[in-house]
Design brief:
about 55% helix
Length: about 325
C-alpha cells in the first residue's frame, strides 16, 4: 500500500478520526484485561517493541498496528555504517518509551519496493506511520537529543490528535508471549452512519458527508466523532468550489473584508497552515466591529472544532482571540 504523506502541522485526517476512537477503545480493553489477569495477560514484552518487517507483512505489522500505536520505521542495510550507529539507539529508546511507539526495522536490500514507496534516497532514514499515514522523521545521522525531541513530538501528536495512547508492556513478559492481535472494538449504534460519512468524504460527496454527520448529531448531540467530522466536512464543502488564486488575491487586496479573509482562512486550514488561518482571522477580528466581527469570530470557533480543542495551537489562538476581543 502506498503510504500517504502527513505533516505534523496539518489538519487531522478525516479518515483517522474513527481509527483514533477505535484505538482508544482497544487500548482501554487491553489495559482492563491486563488488570483482570494480574497485569501480564495481553501485554507485550520489551523485546516485542522492536520488530523486523518485510513487504509481505507491512500491511499487518505496520499499517494495522498504527491504529493502536505510532510505528517508527528504521530503514537500514547491513553495509550502512551510520545505520549501525543509529539502530541500537532507536532500539534502546523503543524499550525506554515503554510502548509509546513500536519500532519496525526494514532491510532496504530485501525490501526495495517499500524503499521506493516511501521515496527514500539514502539511508539511514526514519519514518513514522500514525493511523495509517506516513510522515518523515529524519534522514542520516542524528544525535540522541534530536531523536528524543522528535519522538516526544510524535508521541504527543499521536495521543492528542489520534487518541493513540500506546501499548501495554509487561517488563517481565516473555517475547512473543502476548496475543498481539488487537481486541475488537465495541460496535457503536452510529458506526454505520459514521462509516457512510467517511465513504462520502472519500468520494468527494461533501454534502452527503455533512448530512450523515448531522443525522448522528440529531439523535446524539454529544457525539464527539460526529461533531469533529461535521466541522471538517463543512470546511471541505465550503472550499470545494473556490478558486484559490482568486481567493488569495481578494484577501490580499481587501485586508479588512471579513468574507475575503474568512474564505482565505478556510483555504489556509485545508492546506495545513493552521497558525496562518488562526492568525488571519484574529487580525480580522481586530480590524472589524459589529456583525462583521461576530461572523469572523464564529468562523474562527468553527475552525477550532476542525483542529480539535486539545491542540496547543487552538489554546494559543483562543488566548489571542480573547485579547483581540477585550
Amino acid at each position: 500500500m502506498q503510504p500517504r504523506n502527513m505533516s505534523m502541522s496539518g489538519v487531522v485526517d478525516l479518515a483517522a478520526v474513527k481509527a483514533a476512537q477505535e484505538a482508544k477503545a482497544k487500548a482501554e480493553q487491553a489495559r482492563a484485561e491486563a488488570a483482570r489477569q494480574g497485569g501480564g495477560a495481553g501485554a507485550l514484552s520489551p523485546a516485542d517493541l522492536v520488530i523486523d518487517v518485510d513487504e509481505a507483512g507491512f500491511e499487518q505489522d505496520v499499517l494495522q498496528r498504527s491504529a493502536e500505536v505510532p510505528v517508527v520505521i528504521d530503514f537500514w542495510a547491513e553495509w550502512c555504517e551510520p545505520c549501525k550507529q543509529l539502530s541500537p539507539v532507536l532500539e534502546r529508546l523503543a524499550v525506554e518509551y515503554n510502548g509509546r511507539f513500536l519500532l519496525a526495522k526494514v532491510d532496504v536490500d530485501a525490501n526495495q519496493m517499500l524503499m521506493q514507496q516511501f521515496g527514500i534516497q539514502g539511508i539511514p532514514a526514519v519514518f513514522a506511520v500514525v493511523a495509517g499515514q506516513a510522515l518523515p522523521l529524519f534522514q542520516g545521522a542524528a544525535g540522541e537529543a534530536q531523536i528524543r525531541e522528535t519522538l516526544d513530538q510524535l508521541v504527543q501528536v499521536a495521543e492528542q490528535r489520534f487518541g493513540l495512547t500506546g501499548l501495554v508492556v509487561d517488563p517481565d513478559g516473555e517475547p512473543g508471549g502476548a496475543d498481539q492481535s488487537a481486541p475488537e472494538a465495541p460496535v457503536g449504534p452510529y458506526d454505520a452512519l459514521l462509516e457512510a460519512a467517511v465513504r462520502a468524504l472519500d468520494a468527494g460527496d461533501f454534502g452527503g458527508a455533512v448530512q450523515a454527520y448531522r443525522n448522528v448529531l440529531n439523535d446524539d448531540p454529544g457525539n464527539t466523532e460526529a461533531k469533529l467530522g461535521l466541522a471538517q466536512a463543512e470546511l471541505l464543502h465550503r472550499v470545494s468550489g473556490l478558486d484559490p488564486q482568486q481567493v488569495r488575491k481578494e484577501a490580499a487586496d481587501k485586508p479588512s473584508d471579513p468574507q475575503a479573509q474568512i474564505a482565505a482562512a478556510d483555504l489556509d486550514l485545508v492546506g495545513g497552515h493552521v497558525e496562518d488561518a488562526f492568525g488571519r482571522l484574529i487580525d480580522t477580528v481586530r480590524r472589524t466591529a459589529g456583525d462583521d466581527r461576530d461572523a469572523v469570530r464564529l468562523r474562527l470557533l468553527e475552525l477550532f472544532e476542525v483542529v480539535g480543542g486539545d491542540d496547543p495551537r487552538v489554546a494559543a489562538a483562543r488566548r489571542s482571540l480573547a485579547r483581540a476581543l477585550f
